[in-house]
Design the sequence.
């Protein structure tokens, strides 16, 4: 069984590098990409690999070719925001990034209602998956296994979307994952404190869902997301103070 992602191809590496620069704003909207010869020298790839990478970025809406102007970076409204790669690049931004505010706002619109649905629709397999994810979170917290805790936390929230049994919620799992990864990355230096706060909040969500308490699950998820936003604001303030 594979234990981790496969190594990235040269094309994927160029896509990742350019995608990060675009999403971070280093390459600004409506600005031209560097000349092809410069990109070839910068990334040390063949012309074929570079053009394949640009096709991928164009398919994600991050760049477009315009007559007489060449290949330009597009504005964020043109990006495929729920594309897993685009969301992954967003998750690496600072706590002050406006997109993280938007993503957390999206979570507040979606996850409490999803938790309420999960409380009334989840079956035995759903409940087992959710309880197992929580137990893995607890194990990670008690053994100082931060990576294990993060993985289980992501599985917990994905399990709730699955338990809601609404097929249109599943594509949002990538957006929620990106927001969570950003939040967990920003607060990693305070892992012990965050685990102590986070576990009871997740336990309240779990208990409400297992009890079939829709309003309770909705309320518990909102309390958890309030805490998530508070920690983001604290990290943003710390970054501002350090600048």
Sequence:
């Amino acid at each position: 069984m594979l234990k981790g992602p496969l190594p990235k191809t040269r094309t994927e590496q160029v896509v990742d590098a350019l995608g990060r620069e675009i999403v971070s704003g280093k390459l600004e909207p409506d600005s031209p990409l560097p000349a092809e010869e410069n990109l070839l020298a910068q990334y040390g790839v063949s012309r074929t690999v570079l053009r394949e990478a640009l096709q991928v970025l164009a398919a994600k809406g991050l760049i477009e070719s315009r007559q007489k102007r060449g290949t330009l970076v597009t504005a964020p409204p043109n990006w495929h925001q729920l594309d897993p790669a685009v969301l992954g690049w967003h998750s690496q931004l600072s706590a002050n990034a406006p997109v993280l505010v938007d993503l957390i706002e999206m979570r507040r619109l979606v996850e409490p209602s999803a938790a309420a649905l999960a409380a009334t629709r989840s079956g035995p397999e759903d409940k087992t998956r959710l309880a197992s994810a929580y137990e893995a979170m607890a194990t990670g917290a008690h053994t100082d296994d931060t990576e294990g805790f993060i993985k289980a936390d992501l599985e917990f929230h994905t399990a709730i979307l699955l338990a809601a049994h609404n097929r249109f919620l599943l594509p949002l799992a990538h957006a929620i994952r990106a927001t969570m990864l950003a939040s967990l990355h920003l607060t990693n230096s305070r892992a012990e404190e965050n685990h102590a706060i986070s576990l009871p909040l997740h336990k309240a969500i779990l208990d409400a869902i297992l009890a079939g308490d829709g309003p309770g699950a909705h309320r518990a998820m909102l309390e958890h997301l309030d805490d998530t936003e508070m920690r983001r604001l604290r990290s943003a303030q710390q970054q501002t103070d350090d600048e």
Summary: The radius of gyration is 20 Å. The mean pLDDT is 86. The first strand starts at residue 63 and ends at 66.
